[in-house]
Design a protein that fits this description.
single chain, mainly alpha, 4 helices
């Protein structure tokens, strides 16, 4: 029980750090040409997709537990669902940015806002 709580606390801490880093990067590299509505849409887009992801993941876990699937298979399916929804969010964010920026600025902004915090998250997962 104690190990489970420690594991949960570590995961929550890593996710909090990811959101915090992403927020600070957003504040520092926010495109100046965007109006506040588009800037907020870009910043909150990941949260919108997160809500959709949680609903899909809950349905998946319920279905796979009902079908007596092994834990490793459930984990693998959930990882794929996270990757696909993150790719959709990344693509949608690029579409919003491309409507107001040129292609190069869009790529640079996406790298700074999404790939930098994601790279830090993956690196910390590999180290720990």
């Amino acid at each position: 029980m104690c190990v489970l709580l420690i594991s949960l606390a570590i995961i929550a801490g890593v996710l909090f750090a990811f959101i915090t880093v992403r927020h600070f990067v957003y504040i520092s590299v926010r495109p100046r040409r965007h109006d506040s509505e588009n800037a907020q849409a870009i910043h909150r887009l990941l949260y919108t997709f997160f809500i959709i992801l949680v609903v899909i993941m809950l349905a998946t876990v319920a279905w796979m537990v009902f079908r007596d699937a092994p834990d490793e298979k459930i984990r693998r399916v959930l990882y794929w669902e996270m990757a696909v929804l993150y790719a959709f969010a990344f693509f949608r964010e690029g579409q919003i940015l491309a409507s107001h920026c040129n292609g190069f600025s869009t790529i640079l902004y996406l790298c700074a806002l999404e790939l930098l915090p994601l790279g830090m998250l993956v690196a910390s997962a590999m180290v720990f």
